[in-house]
Amino acid sequence: MAMKTARKAAWVLVVWALAAAGLGSVSARAPLGREAQREFDYFKLSLQWPGTICASTRYCCASNGCCRSEPLQTFTIHGLWPDYDDGTWPACCRRTQFEMDKILPLKETLDKYWPSLFCSSSSTCFSGKGPFWAHEWEKHGTCSAPVVQDELQYFTTALDLYFKYNVTEMLSSGGIQISNGKEYALSDVIDTIKHAFGGSPQIVCKRGSVEELRLCFDKELKPRDCLTTLTNGIVSRRKHCPQYITLPTYDPLVLANSTREIMTQFNDFEVPAALYTS
C-alpha cells in the first residue's frame, strides 16, 4: 500500500511539472466554418473495460492493446470529455492539430493506461485519420478550456484523475472482482463507486458486461454526480445494463502474422446508450 501511495505521489509531481513546462495561453475559438461553442459545464472521465471489448477481437495489429501477450486487467482510459449539463457536449472547438512530439514524455504511460483497443485509425477533427490519442485531443481536448489550455495538459490531467481515482481498486475494495463467472448487482457496483469516489458514475454495458464506466468532475476537478439520462431519451438495447452485470476476463489473441483488424472502430463511444446512476 505504501508503495502504491508513493508511486501515485511521484506521478502527480511528474504530471504537474510537465504541464507547467508546456502551458501556454490559448484563445478559445471555433473551427473554421463553425459557430463558437459555449464553455463546458463539467468533465467526464470515460474508462473502458478491456475484458468486454477485447473479447470481440478477431485479428491483431501492433497498436491494439487487446493483442498484448498478457491480458489487460484494469480499466483503461477512453478519454476526458467536457460535457454540458443538458446531456450534450462540445466538439472540435479549436483548430489545432494533434502533435505527438508534445506528449512524448508521457508515451510509455499512455501506451500502458490509455491504449487503443482497436486496430483501425480514428477520425480526427483537423488531421484526417490518426491515432486514438489524436481523436481524443482534437474532438474533446480542444473544448476543455479554460481548465485545460493545451495538448500536454489535457493528457496529464486525464492521467492524474485516472491514478487518483482508481476504479479497479475501488471495486476490488468493495468485493467486486474480475471474473468470468461471477455476477454482481448493478446497484452494488454503483454504490461501491459512489461511496469510494463521492459521486454517482455512468455505466454502459454490452450483453450484460460492463463496457464503460464514467466518472464525473466539476471544473475544479472535484467529484460530482454524472447525469442519469440523455436529452433525447433514446435508449439502445445493445448498451442496456441488466440488474446483474459482469466484469469478464479474456484470452488475448496475440499478434502474429495478421496486420489488420476487421472490426471498425467507432469514432467515439458517445452514442445514445443506457446510462445508469443511483
TrEMBL record:
Gene Ontology biological-process annotations: RNA catabolic process
Family annotation (InterPro entries): Ribonuclease_T2_eukaryotic, RNase_T2-like, RNase_T2-like_sf, RNase_T2_His_AS_1, RNase_T2_His_AS_2
- Do you know which SUPFAM superfamilies this protein is assigned to? Ribonuclease Rh-like
Keyword terms? Disulfide bond, Endonuclease, Hydrolase, Lyase, Nuclease, Signal
**From which organism does this entry originate?**
Setaria italica
Q: Which family does it belong to?
A: Belongs to the RNase T2 family.
The leader peptide range reads: 1-28
Per the Swiss-Prot or TrEMBL record, the active site comprises H78, E136, H140
What's a Pfam family in this record? Ribonuclease_T2
A single GO cellular-component term from the record reads:
extracellular region
PROSITE patterns according to UniProt: RNASE_T2_1, RNASE_T2_2
MF terms from GO for this chain are:
hydrolase activity; ribonuclease T2 activity; RNA binding; RNA endonuclease activity
User: What domain of life does the native source organism fall in?
Assistant: Eukaryota
The question of whether Signal is a record keyword is answered with yes
Q: What is the designated name of this protein?
A: Uncharacterized protein
